[in-house]
Amino acid sequence: MAIWSKLFTLGRAGANEAATAVVDRNALRILDQEIRDADKAQGKARDDLAGLVARRRILETEVESYRAQAAKYESSARMAMDKGDMDLARQVAQRVADLEQDIAMKAPQIEDMRAAEDQIHKAVAATDRKIEQLRREVEVVKVNESVQKAQSTVAAAGAGSSLGSAAESLARIRERQAIRGEKIRAAGELEDRRTGADLDEKLRLAGITPGHSSADDVLARLSPPKPTLQIEQRDDTSRDA
């Protein structure tokens, strides 16, 4: 029996751990639902408060009506007494007494209802503040949860995650592009050397390539030739004469 009891205890422990894990995974969803439940309860509390205020106002109206009637009947009783009609005066006085009893019974109820209204109003306002504060804290927790998940993904990039594989693929592509570019440049240099294009380019830059001409060459070619200076030679015979 002891073994079965331990196995049963182990099963309950495992179920508790599993339930705890489920709650932890869905903590934010549960918290959102709890806030919605609190909002719903607050709505009912406001409705109840509104009903209490309405009943208190109705009761106040009744008491005011009783006081007005009592004042009117007091005046009527005085008039009956002045006329000497004591029976009528007594009947009116009894009506005033009944109204005063109603006022005496309902006036304290009004005060109690006012006190209850104040307490409920304060409680509702305090709960509203707590719910609003909790809602802001939940938003902060949600943002932190998203940031930490992103950080965990980046931190695991070197451990074979999809992000790490993408980074490695990008590095390999860049390496292949660099090698391909060097091959293209090397092939171009070899082709220039084979055809002599690099030597022609050097001659062209030096200005000794056949067919190369500059602006000075063109102007020299277009300018008219300069006249040559001729020196007159005298005949020796004429010089002797």
TrEMBL record:
<dbReference type="InterPro" id="IPR007157">
    <property type="entry name" value="PspA_VIPP1"/>
</dbReference>
<feature type="region of interest" description="Disordered">
    <location>
        <begin position="206"/>
        <end position="241"/>
    </location>
</feature>
<protein>
    <submittedName>
        <fullName>PspA/IM30 family protein</fullName>
    </submittedName>
</protein>
<keyword id="KW-0175">Coiled coil</keyword>
<feature type="compositionally biased region" description="Basic and acidic residues">
    <location>
        <begin position="232"/>
        <end position="241"/>
    </location>
</feature>
<comment type="similarity">
    <text>Belongs to the PspA/Vipp/IM30 family.</text>
</comment>
<feature type="coiled-coil region">
    <location>
        <begin position="49"/>
        <end position="76"/>
    </location>
</feature>
<dbReference type="Pfam" id="PF04012">
    <property type="entry name" value="PspA_IM30"/>
</dbReference>
